[in-house]
Amino acid sequence: MAVDVRRGSERLTGGSEGIVSRYAFSFGDHYDPRNIHFGPLIAVNEECLEPGAGFGEHRHRDTEIVTWVVEGELEHRDSAGRGGVVRPGMVQRMSAGGGVTHTERNVGASPVRFVQMWVQPDAFGGDPRYEQRVVDLGRGGLVTVLRLPHATLRAARPRGGEEVELPSAPFVYLHVVRGSLRLDGHELGPGDSARITDAAGERVFVPEGAEFLVWEMRKDLSFG
């Protein structure tokens, strides 16, 4: 087992008018050949959009795009006629398939903050798909948010003073949304992440209330 901690303060920063984006991996104009992916995970972006701000119509293909809203209201519309408003406590998944265009916009009266994660799909091509649903984190431990053939996203919101066991998998990625936790001697705060290789059921201790996301991944990135 190896743990690679990345601090939120180290994230690459981008954005435009009314938008602040912070990237965990190479993204957009930022390219680092040593930081392209972890397993099949190719993007973990922290986004903050002011009221009315958003991303105009743009195209994706062969990517699973998963969005977790922290606060505010984010509207999604795509060229397949699907869409909706995502709020805290909900997850959104867009499977781009062979190609789809979409827009994302803050339709609320206050800033919207969200974490958007991109995962390489198990198979390329096909029809685009879209779903959004409510996720109940009231139990405290890890809750399954989304299950893909090769990767599972889980989330937790422990009450504090608890230990949470992480999945055992070749690749486990942990992202702290809010609060703090302790992993393998490391103190992690909001925006911090840990890339765990050959995870074997490590535990995180949550001294106070926190919210974090965990990807359990069982294959590496495929290049063709």
UniProtKB/TrEMBL annotation:
<dbReference type="InterPro" id="IPR041602">
    <property type="entry name" value="Quercetinase_C"/>
</dbReference>
<comment type="similarity">
    <text>Belongs to the pirin family.</text>
</comment>
<dbReference type="InterPro" id="IPR014710">
    <property type="entry name" value="RmlC-like_jellyroll"/>
</dbReference>
<dbReference type="Pfam" id="PF02678">
    <property type="entry name" value="Pirin"/>
</dbReference>
<dbReference type="InterPro" id="IPR003829">
    <property type="entry name" value="Pirin_N_dom"/>
</dbReference>
<feature type="domain" description="Pirin N-terminal">
    <location>
        <begin position="16"/>
        <end position="119"/>
    </location>
</feature>
<dbReference type="InterPro" id="IPR012093">
    <property type="entry name" value="Pirin"/>
</dbReference>
<dbReference type="Pfam" id="PF17954">
    <property type="entry name" value="Pirin_C_2"/>
</dbReference>
<protein>
    <recommendedName>
        <fullName>Pirin family protein</fullName>
    </recommendedName>
</protein>
<feature type="domain" description="Quercetin 2,3-dioxygenase C-terminal cupin">
    <location>
        <begin position="151"/>
        <end position="217"/>
    </location>
</feature>
<dbReference type="InterPro" id="IPR011051">
    <property type="entry name" value="RmlC_Cupin_sf"/>
</dbReference>
